[in-house]
Amino acid sequence: MREWWKTLALGILLVGLVAVVVEGQQGGPPLSNSRAEKPIEVSFTTGSRGHILVDVVVNGRDPVPFAIDTGAGRTVLHQGRVSDLGLVQRASEETVQGAHEESALGFVDVESLSVGEAALGPIELATMDLSHVESDDMPLYGVLGFDVLSRFDILLDLGNEKVEFYRPAVSLNGCTVCEGGIVVPFELVMGTHIAFEVTISGTPIVAILDTGSGRSGMNHLAATAIGVELPPTSPGRHGPALQVGEVHIGDDVLARDLMVGVVDLPAFAALGVAGGPAMLIGTGALVGRRVGISYGVGHLSIR
């Protein structure tokens, strides 16, 4: 059971730094692309726990793997890798709420950061310990969070393992990543995390898109609402696995026979959704799909 919930350890990071992100980091340098009319296309690999890993160049050094994490409020560098990149961390007294527990936080200044042709720096990165997410077959230097991802409209092609970065659309009609399939509006809870409504057994549930996790999870209120009675679990503790039949977005099926973990994560409370049925949608629910995220017009597409 413990192994199941390791896959949620990366998602929903840095919800305690929303104000810093919105005031100091959102926006940043414009998309740098010599082919302005075309997207920037980058290949990714899928980690053994479902993480979407892209090569990131920090200060002109050799590329290193970062995870694309819509569940992270800010871009983060693994504290255990700071010296590997020739950087110096600034200590702080701040902590941050992760999926299960709080972690110590630091900061580091990066002169340049890039993914493919997308120039993302200079930028101040948060630092925290991500060693619990790494494995022997998945070294991890950091995660790309909201402050970077929100500069673009993004198309994640999980079948062909590539991601496309577009200039943010200014209208739904001009939104390339919103074309086809399931198209629904989303809200940014706490200003950073993509939230939309799904239904299971006819019950509406607030869903948070969390590409920083391979698995999906729900709170006990969601399990009870769909008719599953489970013993209570202490906040942040590992919960049982539950198979749900169909997860719907409107009249469309997002996933069938989805396995979810059931636990009242502190992150649900930090995001303000713990008072009702809530769940995290990880990449395991999206296998083979093309997922479009338009931060420009606030719409999500799944095809």
Helix content: under 10%
The unreliable regions are 1-9, 16-36
Mean pLDDT: 84
- The helix count comes to 5
Give the overall silhouette.
globular
- Tell me the structural class: mainly beta
What distance separates the N and C termini? 31 Å
Reported for the largest beta sheet, the result is:
10 strands, mixed
Radius of gyration: 18 Å
Instruction: Please report the total strand number as a whole number.
Output: 23
Please report which band the strand proportion falls in: under 5%, 5-15%, 15-25%, 25-35%, 35-45% or over 45%.
Answer: 35-45%
In N-to-C order, the SSE pattern is: HHEEEEEEEEEEEHEEEEEEEHEEHEEE
Keywords:
globular; ten-stranded mixed β-sheet; 303 residues; disordered N terminus; six-stranded antiparallel β-sheet; mainly beta; 5 helices
Task: Tell me what the structure shows.
This protein is mainly beta. The protein is built from five helices and 23 strands. Strands 2, 3, 4, 5, 6, 7, 8, 9, 10 and 11 form a ten-stranded mixed sheet that branches. A hairpin with a 4-residue loop joins strand 12 and strand 13.
